[in-house]
Batch of 4 targets.
Target 1
Amino acid sequence: MTLIESVSAQEVLDSRGNPTVEVHVELDGGWEGQAIVPSGASTGIHEAVELRDGDPKRYGGKGVLTAVANVTDVIAPEVIGMDALDQVALDRRLCELDGTENKSRLGANAILGVSLASARAACEATGLPLYRYLGGVGAVTLPVPQLNVLNGGAHAQTSVDFQEFMFLPWGMPTFAEALRAGSECFQALRAVLRGRGLHTGQGDEGGFAPSLTRNEEAVELLVEAIARAGYTHAQVAIGLDPAPSALLKDGRYVLKGEGRELTSAELVDLWESWLDRYPIVSLEDGMAEEDWDGWQLLTRRLGERVQLVGDDNFVTNPKLLQKGIDLGVANAVLIKLNQIGTLTEAMETVALGRAHGYNPVVSHRSGETEDTFIADFVVAINGGQLKDGAPSRSERVAKYNRLLRIERELGGAAVFAGRAALPRASAPAATGAR
Ligand code: 2PG
Ligand code: MG
């Protein structure tokens, strides 16, 4: 009853208006599953390959008809007849069919679409909610949301060099209350920006995208918004993803908006001075993906007092995460399903990280869709943190709303991850100033 009977695909649009892959899987028992693949802008160089047609006459070369054809013509005939309940076997088969290290033959967008749509169909067959199917009876943890409320870098066309400035409502009792706090701080931020005559137009992840003269001003604005909304830093803290891989030129970090350049050591100094003065509890990609020495220095200097999340350097890849573990780099790992390309491999990366004290932070991409798979996924793995953009724009809000429904469904069994999700930042030394 759970054997894959048909696999179809089509080109649909993501939140930036770019094409992406949607896959539909049907089982012989009649159950169906669907998935839409997201797409990044500040992608890591070692990410699994997102196959684009390159035909300048369609969508500026960004069409995905080749990936769609790979699903229907290459993958479908090979996976029809497989049991959708055996996700590991399916994902292994998908990797074999591709045959490359980085999924460049069939495309990670084609492969992930099949992997997730099939998981959904199998889930339908069991009659369980997706988080319960994927995670079992122990899947009860609602994540601390990382709400990206001020967008810069590759996600906005402004003078702000750093990409993401986030609210982390970590000290609230439930997910619903955390989301309320995040949303109230977001509205307060709008008022703070208006009060200063700054733009409240939004960037790719729904956060505001004002032009600022100094990157640090963005953090000041968030701090002001938290106070204006009436929250303490023990309730709502701050997270950053500067995405500096895009800033590194000839060994120096070029802050164009500020007209200055920093060495790796100077960038560590900058983060340290921010940690001393602001309630920052999570720093993702404090260094560029290839600056392993800078990453080591950063981890040595600040790893005891703040969550250091590896994104571009690990790209959800167990091999690269292992390299980071061996080198003593970062202390948490970002999990983006399309960076690696199958559900099974993403779960492997989560398990490897956990075995070495690296907490997972599940993440959306800047190009998102109405697909809410990651909301169920983060509950399934008891992940504890979900980075999903601002509480604004439906492709972001859809995931937050799904989590509200899951929390309600779990009732008394639901556990909000809260401050325990960020153990380093919760240490007395780090919170003393707050
Ligand atoms: C990141 C992501 C998501 P993108 O850098 O963490 O916020 O951005 O999807 O553009 O890679
Ligand atoms: Mg990132």
Target 2
Amino acid sequence: MTNDERWAVAAGRAGAFNAKGAPLDVRRIRADFPILAQSVNGKRVVFLDSAASSQKPIQVLQAMDEVYRCAYANVHRGVYAFSEAATARYDEARAKVARFIGAPSAEQIVFTRNATEALNLLAYSYGRHFLRPGDEILITELEHHANFVPWQVLAQERGLTLKFIPITPEGQLDLQRLDERLTPRTKLVSFAHVSNVLGTITDPRPIIQRAHAIGAKVIVDGSQSAPHMPVNVGAMDCDFLVFSGHKMLGPTGIGVLYGKRELLEAMPPFLTGGDMISAVGFDGPRWNEVPLKFEAGTPAFVEAIGLGAAVDYLDALGMEAVRAHEREITAYALERISEVPGAKIVGPTDPEIRGGVVTFTLDRVHPHDLASLLDRDGVAIRAGHHCAQPLHIRLGLSATARASFYVYNELHEVDALIEAIYKAKAALKR
Ligand code: C6P
């Protein structure tokens, strides 16, 4: 096999596939994830924490392994074969990500370390350059800390006002209150497309339209949507979209910032150094073109190539099918968990407006105790505030338990979760 043929296999072209509109073939998918065959405490692992970070298929592992074995050299620097091959694959990964989210061009995809870094980049570069004392930033009560703290810091530093769209008792954004929260001083609106705690799917379009009508720019945090459903930046008309590779079958250390070209071009760099300049003299630097202006230093190009393979994998499954699968498993989990005495679902109970995240509390059982007891049965869930403490304050809860699903989860894993919950209740005499 030539290197190029190996590459074609590794890049996922020979991986899982799905006829358009067909349901996911989960058994076949699971065969691509070696880790799912592992045992934990003598039990076959039931991995229900993909909202924190997903598992990786062999196609992604092979794509990265292949670069290290066959085409590894620093990108954008060498004029020799390895460097040119690595650069071509890095550029190809950028183009795949652009296509995946419907971006008009690959240059509008900036690779970052993760969604958190992308949001910090926006706060530093866009926020510090374009916002003035007295301006307002509008976020929501359900944001992850990554879409909360950078704006709190910026607001304190620059004399800005941070405002919040409240949530309804059902756990949706209260859009009745949007118009009163949007004022002529609102310059930036930033919100999660899907909540990592409530699972709530927010239709971004009405918020974006109303924000644009008063001249504000809009950031969509796609960390919990881009991995799980079709996301199209053109249809949304958002100004920026951020997400992380590690939640969508890709490796850690690679994230994405999409931006409208004119905004990216107008923004100053975030980090400075090599690669992000076009020239440096003793009198000062000149910035490189976007997106390289925002990618200082040697980028995580092997990870970007891994993300490209993850995008191939998801594309082959079809994002409609991914969403349909998660809707089905979420509906089943909502139903089964609600039947457990003392269990309360946190967030919307309608799977149509809920991503593949089911958060709950169990009467007189601390979520951490529950998660530890479930682990004895090989069931991995997350417990805590899920980096959304303000939301938990608003809900009057210190911690919650969360099961989250992805392409490799099966309905019977929800049964395993329920069985383990009953065992935990019995062990705690609840
Ligand atoms: N949520 C969870 O278990 P990073 O850490 O940068 O890859 O992603 C940050 C982030 C931003 N927005 C949302 C909506 C998120 O859910 C996350 C990450 C994980 O819920 C880890 S705390």
Target 3
Amino acid sequence: MKTILVTGAAGQIGSELTLALRERYGNDNVIATGHKTKPSDELFASGPFQFINCANLNSVAEVVKKYNVGTIHHLAAILSAVAEAKPQLAWDVNINGLYNVLEVAREYGCSVFTPSSIGAFGPTTPLDDTPQDTIQRPNTMYGVTKVAGELLCDYYFKRYGVDTRGVRYPGIISNVTLPGGGTTDYAVEIYYEAIKKKHYTCNLKAGTFLDMMYMPDAIKAAIDLMEAEPGVLKHRNAFNVSAMSFDPEIIAASIRRQIPEFSIDYDVDPVKQGIADTWPNNMNDSAARAEWGWQPEYDLEAMTKDMLKELSKKLKEG
Ligand code: AKB
């Protein structure tokens, strides 16, 4: 049987997607790979794990050959704030890494799931009800790599018939692994601080609306899209997917409904604010809903209740 490979498996999405894929397809059929980040004990113990470097084609090819891989979930990427601090690294990982994965997929006949992001939009994109197909002129290195990645995936499908698929993820909120250097990270940190200090100092301004999604829905999106009949897909790559849109005041109010003493103030990070100001306030994800039945399960209130419950347990256990 062909196996599934996950790159970036120790990262925020990878750590949970790998376990979900193992539960669905069998532990030994899902190969977790990472570059430097140490995997959690659960990830390491539950199935194969190997260190690879996606920026090196042979490193990807060897693992695909060794495990007879049929599908690659390519999650290894540098997020937006780190990409602004280290643009050359972002290009190497986000572009050369994806190119290598696509080349290996072409040679070995693999399908590829690649996340794009709300970061693929820019200041001239319509920010409200952002259409599926619209202006994409981002002015960040992260955005440049995401748009190029979307186009590269489309190209490999059209030119070589590689079964490429992907979504534009919004900010992802989770209680297992922390995100590493994104603009939307505040929406995760706020829950940790709400439990630890009942106060949060936010690095984005009140009124900064962004699309967001709870991790179980992010995982569902990846699995549902990869399991969709190819004939139903008109877009294939870069589907807008969203579950909710809020600003820091709205998420704070949602936390306050569970923790009434919670308070928020602001110390704005100009780099992150500059990035967030060019991203959609809310995306239109009707193409994903129509083509492969995208339907999120969590709204803000359901997510807040679950995040606070799960994090309280986790922080108590130490
Ligand atoms: C980031 O903030 O960089 C990511 C993203 C929205 O792509 N979470």
Target 4
Amino acid sequence: MMTELKLTPKEIALLEGAEGPGVQRAMEIVVTLGRIYGAPDLVPVKHVQIAGVSYKNLGDAGVAFLNEWAEEGARVRVPTTLNPAGMEMDRWEEMGFDPTFAQPQIQAIMAFVKMGVRPTLSCTPYLFPDYTPARGEHLAWAESSAVAWANSVVGAYTNREGGPSALASAIVGRTARYGYHLPENRRATHIVEIRCPVRTIADFGALSYMVGKRVGAGVPWFADLADWLPPLPDDLTLGGEAGDRLKTLGAGLAAYGAVALYHIAGYTPEARDQGETLIRPDAQRIVVDNLDEGYAIMDADPDVTEIDLVTIGCPHASLSELRYIAQRLQGKKLATRLWVTTARITRERAAQKGWVQVIEEAGGEVVADTCAVVAPVRGLGIRTMATNAGKMACYAPMHSGVKMRYGDIDRCLDAAITGRWE
Ligand code: F3S
């Protein structure tokens, strides 16, 4: 029997328009989702992350919708941050973006800012030092890679929101309590056993394809992946070797499947506390003997040797990735374009260490606010790309129409130095 959605008197008042049409519209969205998914009630959220921010995704209709909502007086009531836009906001001209793309993109960001959203323009809100999600917190995050991180690595609770539903949650400060907000839905549906080495970020990307494709929207339990992970650092905002691998794993699981939560035995918080009681009795077993199938799919165009753009930082690069790239490029000169995409806030932290300057001296660009999937890179003359990120290898050919080479970070940086994929 379907549970009836219970609303508090305050929530009923918002739904009836007590705080104006903008808030009423937001409440209608949250309540409708709650009724569709059989939620018992609404739950307050601590933080919201909005995705679908690029003009490439929004189009004119999306920009008009945002402006209308802002004009109706809608304002967010919890801290809310934004996913990458389609360009770096204050360098778009210099980087070659067309004004017909830039102008509506700026209008969209202004509408978000008018509603009180922080224009962080990054898919890695969990790397920001001023807010990190905590275990057991309810969130409304729309960026699928960040959702996987929050649920799995931190043990926070969030569904994979859509762009409008995340914004609606920010405006009313609540989301409907269903899906991953309920402990019973956080149990593992698949047990994954790995019988091959998983060493690099690119290996974790290849693994994400092989598991994501089989699991779909399920919850994988990695029985032995902890063998391939150093301990997580106390400060998760630094990334670190383990953080960088898990960032890629979650992004790929979400892109190739629709995974919003995974567990690693003895490693991720819920798996550590609850052990195998977290596995459903009907869980299916998956054995991964090698990563060949993942590499074959991601390294999609093996005939391509000339690379127009090497891109690293999907999800946005962490401080540890920026440090590694700077060390690797010290004193080198690049033959082709390199984008290390990251959050503005991470770029500032890396610049304080001198890492951004080293990458730029080599001829690379540390690009903030955007990435090679949400930016119109074909308009910049990019036809071939190389990356070490599973999600980028999945989405860039689809969204940006480029040919793709895939391999570990050293291979990508070598391609940037020589201009060729050897
Ligand atoms: Fe982030 Fe773009 Fe990848 S939004 S997760 S860098 S596709």
